[in-house]
Amino acid sequence: xxxxxxxxxxxxxxxxxxxxxxxxxxxxxxxxxxxxxxxxxxxxxxxxxxxxxxxxxxxxxxxxxxxxxxxxxxxxxxxxxxxxxxxxxxxxxxxxxxxxxxxxxxxxxxxxxxxxxxxxxxxxxxxxxxxxxxxxxxxxxxxxxxxxxxxxxxxxxxxxxxxxxxxxxxxxxxxxxxxxxxxxxxxxxxxxxxxxxxxxxxxxxxxxxxxxxxxxxxxxxxxxxxxxxx
Length: 230
Ligand SMILES: Cc1cc2nc3c(=O)[nH]c(=O)nc-3n(C[C@H](O)[C@H](O)[C@H](O)COP(=O)(O)O)c2cc1C
What we know:
alpha/beta; binds flavin mononucleotide
């Protein structure tokens, strides 16, 4: 099992990173692999509304001179996704917004490929705007049919200078509980014997359909077989 976290802060060693690592600690205790990517430190371009991702349905954005396509593959491969951002002018950072505008459209273009993965948002804030940022980030998960994990409080921590968030004891407890809840849900889902709804099947056929023209003729048969196996 793997969790990938995207940090929208441009500041390395900052408060968002600190909180993400607090969550990672709980996940790693349970043997769950983690990876942290600092999208906020990169030049991530915004969506240009060309809708080529919808046309091509190849899990790629036409903008190829940044890392978004690589990161989208990491999202697809992960079992859970964390989106972390500091509050900038009462919302997420611009880099994070560019990142989720593009990846959410890519997910839609590819048959809701992130559906039923687990998601959680984390917000670093000095004073105000955390709830708005938290809700904005969570919108990425809910439009993508993902399962949002919560904690004993909304997932935020207070601090201005890098590392100051450690002094927010309640925020730290919130992160620890978030990690525990995410680990529990990951394990519960992996052990579940309940098959996912039809959409998963449709996705795999859709993929096979695109990968090989030969599969094309067999697609209806493959669909029936998969339904019977359900
Ligand atoms: C450009 C900018 C805008 C900010 N806007 C807000 C804000 O609207 N509300 C707030 O409480 N803090 C604001 N802050 C403070 C950061 O949210 C806070 O320092 C946060 O802990 C930084 O997280 P990081 O260390 O992960 O980058 C702002 C900081 C910057 C640099």
